[in-house]
Design brief:
212 residues; alpha/beta; Rossmann fold; six-stranded mixed β-sheet; two-stranded antiparallel sheet; 5 helices; globular
């Protein structure tokens, strides 16, 4: 099978997981790309942690264009859904495998799986749980490519999660660590570290477990 995987950021931590997955799938021709300009053609185009809108004409170059989205669609459309949900107290995250459409996150659903997120899991541990499940959905897509019967999403008029930016990682020094722990633990310490300002100086917060 001829497969392409579009991950728009070369710095995104999912790249490490996808690269290892490619190494275990030698029976397929798999290309990892980081720009729509690199799109060619094939059987499946996976959009993983993809911030670009892939047009219908671009999608038509593949038999199927599939998205792995970390929410229980149609709820949680938008950007970084599992991060927003964990910040809001979620301990179980549903991942959806769906077909890409012009309107973001509205395509037919192929499969959903649920992931339990421990309340003490930090950024890298959350990533491992989420990314491993994303790869499992990709395996499912390949195995069921010719037999799947997708299901349409129900109508939903709710709001979409906004795209996260550095300002979403700011910590209020007037609140307790306990009150903001879920925010601190989901922040990417390299790309979007948690931070606060004190007397006009910006300080980053790096959190790690002490396993002694």
């Amino acid at each position: 099978m001829n497969i392409s995987i579009l991950i728009t950021s070369i710095e995104h931590p999912v790249n490490t997981y996808v690269n290892k997955w490619v190494e275990t799938n030698k029976s397929h021709q798999i290309n990892i790309i980081h720009s729509k300009k690199e799109i060619t053609s094939g059987d499946i185009l996976f959009l993983i942690s993809c911030s670009d809108i892939v047009s219908k004409s671009e999608r038509k170059k593949f038999n199927k264009t599939l998205v792995v989205h970390a929410s229980d669609l149609p709820y949680g459309r938008g950007w970084s859904p599992h991060v927003w949900e964990i910040i809001n107290g979620a301990t179980d995250i549903t991942l959806s495998l769906l077909e890409a459409e012009n309107k973001v996150d509205t395509g037919d659903i192929w499969k959903k799986i649920s992931v339990s997120i421990p309340k003490t899991a930090l950024f890298d541990e959350i990533n491992e749980l989420i990314f491993d499940s994303e790869l499992a959905l990709m395996d499912f897509a390949i195995e069921n490519y010719n037999t799947i019967e997708p299901k349409k999403q129900p109508n939903f008029d709710g709001e979409c999660w906004p795209k996260r930016s550095p300002k979403d990682s700011v910590i209020d020094i007037n609140q307790t660590i306990y009150e903001q722990f879920d925010l601190i633990r989901v922040c990417d310490p390299k790309r979007f570290p948690a931070y606060f300002y004190k007397d006009g100086v910006k300080f980053n917060i790096i959190i790690e477990k002490n396993n002694e």
